[in-house]
TrEMBL record, chains A, B:
Species this protein is from: Streptomyces capoamus
A molecular function GO annotation: oxidoreductase activity, acting on paired donors, with incorporation or reduction of molecular oxygen
The UniProt record lists the keyword Metal-binding: no
Pfam family for this entry, one: Bac_luciferase
Binding-site positions, FMN: D57, T94, H144, Y148, S218, S219
Record key words, sorted: Flavoprotein, FMN, Monooxygenase, Oxidoreductase
Gene giving rise to this polypeptide: ssuD
NCBIfam families the UniProt entry points to: FMN_nitrolo (TIGR03860)
Protein name: Monooxygenase
SUPFAM superfamilies, alphabetized: Bacterial luciferase-like
Family: Belongs to the NtaA/SnaA/DszA monooxygenase family.
Length: 447, 447
């Protein structure tokens, strides 16, 4: 096994990442709110010695009900239930810094970290879109830069809260009647632009100190944020060259921020569609595309590109005069990725919807297990990835196929662990040190 | 078995409700954040066919570390983990209407209700005290009346969110490519004094429709709120007469609010301290009192009574000129209960602290299993209670003793079920109907 470890994360999403997956005969249209479905997926991922499970989130009902499965179990709730059904795998929940309070969210992540024995991770997002804003008393989406400014303060407060108990604050001296040492408590007394938080957290410091910090924004502000805080970064990249550029940029920003670039793991998304031959894989991909309702995709694309409804035609192309990314207040990097994909490959709107239907901008790769393993190895060894966010088009079958057929190939090549081994926490699996408490000063020298 | 069912709820709190419980040899001072401790308690309660488990909460670190176990696992997180470790028992989590957003909290309770197969309950509290307020950007505690006004709007919005999907909104028509029926979606479009919430919940309607609604405030505003919304009410009562008066008042208010008084269950708290003889029980009580650090209790009492630090002396009595309940902005009903207890029994401050140390105002009852069962039966049959909130002084041993020794007596008298039977949801156990969806109009007659 090479010293550099490949990290695999299972991105779980109802019946799969392909928008038409629910229409296949094998799929259960109610699976997205069935605990049993997710327990089954978690166990498959543990068989494949994945580092972690990941759930996306936004506090809003996406799109409409007609198109595809909508709604979900709230991610921290679902991952807490999965913590008791699994033993090793990390549990990464998405939660928004724009629509939560630091005190509430910090204690929920601390609680999950304790309940899971140190397996919690937080995918920190700022939540694009006006729909979410309107569920929290705002008339419109806060500007992109403001969302990231709030996110940075949210993190600073959360880190203070997680450090507000020293690791050895509990004394438990029954004879003296002294349970804990109040000198080892550090209330944040934070007064900032977005938050004032006075008191210490009501959860002791956790196995990991705090959850693994994950980030998934690729805009300028998103990368700056990642360089400062993130220990793992999810990203959508369509070509090896783009992925290499992103990887190099993020590592150098991390170094510039005074951190070890090895302490941030870059994990592009990949939607593997497997077949025992290349032709079989392509047929599986085609079957999914045949089930897309293209008319639905037009509205979603217009909304992502901030175009008035009715602008796009299925057999036309994107307008030539789309605004630059700087004019976008929503999901900046996804906007650019989609526009560049359409232009680079001269796709019609219909073809573009077909491509996005599989992974919403993530790289779909149809092939044999060896071909998928080759792709993974190439990106991993050529400076494009530290691992992958595996996004099966259909669930559970796509995850099962990956674990049965691709994982053994990766193990055979010495790229992937064959068992979990003695490391217990998610941060240990990523090869990262347990963070020190920011309030701990070195002990004074004895005189 | 009589047609009227006795309802038992296990109020779990780290090593027990007695503040000195952690100092006993049997207690683990770290138990309050150990999942295994709570799993064990949950299984004991299921052996005793309790209706539910209950966890209290406030988003703040109570008191100081020296005195007794502080901090806890966040209740919804812990109960989600317990949902997978249990099969029948209800799961009632406390959450604050003052320091949450309806959209976030509604989806968390909906998710727990789904994950647990319809066993979720919400103890709705408004959270007294400035400490909590200062963790959420407020300089001071909002006034009592304002907290309850916000609570009422919070409930109205939550009920709209839980009803925002009709039960049969999911269609799952694979052939037609139609997953759900958008006409069965009802976005709240709520614009009120405290909240604006536009969109539908991103969780389908749940097994119970929504969590069982529980309430625990006994002030004038608290009772009015309970009469309007609550399906179960926790209360602290020191005497049969007080408990009967509260019971009658709450039932008549519920009737006046246009609801069936049988649809609100009144559950006073009781701290049973068991012994195989009366003398043994009193000795167990004395052992606990001997472990109280009385100096700590003075500060807590001053804070509850809103007195300046240093006012009270251990061997003195409460001042004669305490302000009336109407002048209190914190926990109104608890204030009155404590003042009346001290006056009625002419207690010194030390004696009062001894009494409160066991159950913070709840009735402590030391006796044999038969005596405890008598007490329960008396209150149950004489119009003081529909059941009890069992608050063992020491955990797990106190719950174990109750289930081993009191439960069989109650069953023998035909007061308590001997097995769970076919009812699945918490609301079914309470004998309550599943709530109808507020947006559902009767189907038009066929023509
Ligand atoms: C794999 C992956 C998962 C993501 N998951 C979420 C999510 O769950 N919720 C969310 O609001 N944004 C999610 N995002 C989007 C980003 O967090 C971000 O909002 C988006 O890329 C726009 O950020 P940017 O403007 O910095 O590029 C995800 C992105 C990636 C690559
Ligand atoms: C059994 C019981 C449990 C309670 N649990 C909580 C709790 O967890 N959190 C909280 O803030 N208040 C809790 N309370 C207090 C009440 O919700 C309420 O805040 C207090 O009685 C003051 O309300 P009032 O002013 O309406 O009397 C509890 C009360 C009782 C009787």
């Amino acid at each position: 096994m090479s010293t550099r470890e490949l990290h695999l994360n299972a991105f779980l999403m109802n019946t799969g990442h392909h928008e038409a997956s629910w229409r296949l005969p094998e799929s259960d249209p109610y699976a997205h709110v069935e605990l049993g479905h997710y327990v089954r997926l978690a166990k498959i991922a543990e068989r494949g010695t994945f580092d972690s499970l990941f759930l996306a989130d936004s506090p809003q009902l996406w799109g409409n009900l007609a198109q595809r499965p909508a709604g979900a179990l709230e991610p921290l709730t679902l991952l807490t239930a999965l913590a008791t059904a699994t033993e090793h795998i990390g549990l990464i929940a998405t939660a928004s810094t724009s629509y939560n309070s630091p005190y509430n969210l910090a204690r929920r992540f601390a609680s999950l970290d304790i309940v899971s024995g140190g397996r919690a991770g937080w995918n920190i997002v700022t939540t694009a879109g006006a729909e979410a804003a309107r569920n929290f008393g705002l008339a419109a989406e806060p500007a992109h830069a403001e969302r990231y400014a709030r996110a940075a303060e949210f993190l600073d407060v959360s880190l203070k809260l997680w450090d507000s108990w020293e690791d050895d604050a509990i004394v438990g001296d029954k004879a003296a009647g002294v349970w804990g040492d109040d000198r080892k408590l550090h209330p944040p007394r934070h007064e900032g632009t977005y938050f004032s938080v006075e008191g210490a957290l009501n959860v002791p410091r956790t196995p990991q100190g705090y959850p693994l910090l994950v980030q998934a924004g690729s805009s300028e502000d998103g990368r700056a944020f990642a360089a400062r805080y993130a220990e793992a970064v999810f990203t959508a990249q369509q070509t090896l060259a783009d992925a290499q550029a992103f990887y190099a940029d993020l590592k150098s920003r991390t170094r510039a921020a005074g951190r070890d670039p090895e302490h941030v793991k870059v994990l592009p998304g990949i939607v593997p569609v497997l077949g025992s031959t290349e032709a079989e894989a392509r047929a599986a991909e085609q079957l999914l595309e045949d089930h897309i309702v293209y008319e639905h995709g037009v509205g979603r694309l217009e909304s992502l590109l901030q175009l008035p409804a009715g602008t796009l035609r299925l057999d036309g192309r994107l307008p030539a005069d789309l605004p630059p990314e700087s004019a976008v207040e929503g999901a900046k990097s996804r906007y650019t990725l989609v526009v560049e994909l359409a232009r680079r490959e001269r796709l019609t709107v219909r073809q573009l919807i077909g491509r996005l239907g599989g992974g919403r901008g993530h790289l779909t790769f149809a092939g044999t297990p060896e071909q998928v393993a080759d792709q993974i190895e190439t990106w991993f060894t050529r400076g494009a990835a530290d691992g992958f966010n595996i996004m099966p088009a259909v669930l559970p079958s796509g995850l099962e196929a990956f674990v049965e057929h691709v994982v053994p190939v990766l193990r055979g090549r010495g790229l992937l662990r064959t068992e979990y081994g003695p490391r217990r926490t998610l941060r240990e699996r990523y090869g990262l040190p347990r963070p020190a408490n920011q309030y701990l000063t070195p002990a004074p020298a004895l005189v």
